[in-house]
Specification:
Layout lengths: L10 H6 L1 H5 L5 H13 L1 H21 L6 H15 L23
Helix pairs in contact: 3-4
């Protein structure tokens, strides 16, 4: 995604770190760069606005539920894989194997 105009900070860099920006997890120097980019680039600003709205909606609708510890660990593990650039398995290898199904009695 790009508006076709040159920017000091590339669109791909901004979008790669959009969720970290939304969660205030980027250094202040990057926050300033990204804010400047949003002022210059309407497609990235639109993407930012959409993701911000989704985040607020999820928080409003689901923000009161306790997250099971094992689910939280799985999600954080997958995020670590993604951030490190490793391939994320399509099949969730951390999920417990399903219990065997008993044969039906006749």
């Amino acid at each position: 995604m790009s508006c076709g105009e040159p920017h000091e900070t590339d669109c791909s860099e901004v979008l790669d770190h959009l969720y970290e920006f939304l969660d205030s997890e980027v250094p202040d120097v990057d926050r300033v760069k990204f804010k400047q980019h949003f002022e210059e680039c309407s497609p990235c600003l639109e993407k930012y606005g959409l993701e911000e709205a989704v985040k607020k909606l999820v928080k409003r609708c689901c923000g009161h539920d306790d997250v099971p510890t094992d689910l939280r660990a799985k999600v954080l593990g997958r995020l670590d894989l993604i951030r490190s650039g490793q391939a994320v398995p399509e099949h969730d290898v951390t999920a417990a194997e399903p219990a065997p199904v008993a044969p039906q009695e006749r």
